[in-house]
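RETRY 2/3 - previous attempt timed out on the joint model. Re-submitting the same 382-residue input unchanged.
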Amino acid sequence: MRQRSQSPGSAYFYYPRLVCVIGARDDEKATANFAPVTWATPLSCEPPLFGACVSPSTRTHHLVLKTGEFTLSFLGMAEASLVDTLGRLSGSQVDKVKALELVLEPGEVATTPSLAAAYARAECILVDRHQCGDQTLLVGELQRVRVAAEAYDVQGVLRLDRISPLLYLGGNRYVTTDPTSESRPESRGDR
Amino acid sequence: MRQRSQSPGSAYFYYPRLVCVIGARDDEKATANFAPVTWATPLSCEPPLFGACVSPSTRTHHLVLKTGEFTLSFLGMAEASLVDTLGRLSGSQVDKVKALELVLEPGEVATTPSLAAAYARAECILVDRHQCGDQTLLVGELQRVRVAAEAYDVQGVLRLDRISPLLYLGGNRYVTTDPTSESRPESRGDR
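RETRY 2/3 succeeded.
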């Protein structure tokens, strides 16, 4: 394979990545703010922790630190345009809920809403944060997960024949999975 | 959308996720160890940081802390079986390089090799670590990124018509992207 070597930062080599939308309660403006994040990952099984990178300059960062909680909303490919818009607007300047007529779901445990359009939603309590270069890794403990009843199979695996998860590819482009490519490999050495 | 509420941990709601294989030098055994990780994320642009969750009980954890460096290898869908096997074998018990006849690429900056089969590889120096529940988030500063010359377009975006990135879906299942689904949405409110 012909290769090229390059400095870090010049390629989106770590994409595609699943998009999740972080929700934060904005008491001051009597609304909530929603921002798409792809630099995010589960961090622990026990306790169940999930981390999301947020720039300290954002309204989301300010709100999560203030309220001590956040929600995660996972959306399908059909919501690419909405997600893109959420990423372009600033919660400091615009009430995104109002401007985009977002339909919200109230929290069951937390008091921060999530997006009704999501096929999976989680409520998190902020339990820790780590400064990582120019971002803050917000560490949330998962309190409750709500999923569309038809979205997952009995093993808890996403049904790609029913849900087309939204993945970010870099450069303002989005993509989803190919359900026909799904495979359960036979490990080398399996008999 | 009919919903069900559930305790965290009972659904793979945060999948699919891009697979990356962490490489660590094993001086003691004069080999290297490779383990697939999906709980991983970029953490910062400047400096360029990448974080990967590793259980403290693993050989990878031991080796990365000892050597202070690790590599990342991103593989295509065709390597699902290899990745699955790398995840099943323990580096404490087996020399995976030997057992699986892995072809390695030496590092350019670090001295830890990566997998030659990868379409993208990165070399990281361990700069920090955070205990997150039952995992350690290893924080690496990206030193060098090497990519297959044909894998990315001029904007640095992965060419899905050429590369089928390997995504983990949970439950021992893998999937890749659908290149025909790629879109660059027009933001709501764009004129």
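Chain A touches chain B through 94 residues (CB under 8 Å). Closing ticket.
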